[in-house]
Amino acid sequence: MTYPGLEFLLVRAGTDGREFLMNVSVTSARVTLPTDVRVGVTTRLRLADLLGRPKNVQVFGDTAVVGFGVPNDETGEVIQFYFLADTLRKIRWVFYVD
């Protein structure tokens, strides 16, 4: 499912047809967030100032994916920030689904 500036990944599981929300992505600066984090504006350095040390960092070509988890949460749920040329291009919240 997509909306201007947002993407939702839903998965229908098994024979009972239950749906699970797997992740939500913000892809536009038009979507306002509770802090001054903005797609197309926020730099990687600014994000580090706001959130501290990430849980993990992955690099895919010219894109760096910086992941943050909730402290002391072992579910694997993570918020990923995608940077291209040191500018935030996408925020993706990956949910824990059991």
> Which whole number gives the mean pLDDT?
88
Portion of residues within helices: under 10%
End-to-end Cα distance, whole Å, is 21 Å
> Any idea how many domains?
1
Uncertain stretches of 5 or more adjacent residues = none
Q: Can you tell me the overall shape?
A: globular
CA radius of gyration is: 14 Å
Q: Please report the first level of CATH classification, the CATH class.
A: Alpha Beta
Give the DSSP E fraction (strand runs of 2 or more residues): over 45%
> SS-based structural class?
mainly beta
Main pleated sheet: 7 strands, antiparallel
And the CATH topology?
Double Stranded RNA Binding Domain
* Sheet with the most strands: spatial strand order: 1-2-3-7-6-5-4
Helix/strand layout:
Blueprint: E1 2-3, E2 6-13, E3 18-26, H1 44-51, E4 56-60, E5 63-69, E6 78-84, E7 87-94
List keywords for this structure.
single chain, 98 residues, mainly beta, Double Stranded RNA Binding Domain, globular
What does this structure look like?
Helix content is 8%, strand content 47%. By secondary structure, the chain is mainly beta. The protein has a single domain, classed as Double Stranded RNA Binding Domain (2-Layer Sandwich), CATH 3.30.160. The protein has a seven-stranded antiparallel sheet, with no helix packed on it. A hairpin with a 2-residue loop joins strand 6 (78-84) and strand 7 (87-94). The chain is globular, with a radius of gyration of 14 Å. The model has no long low-confidence stretch (mean pLDDT 88).
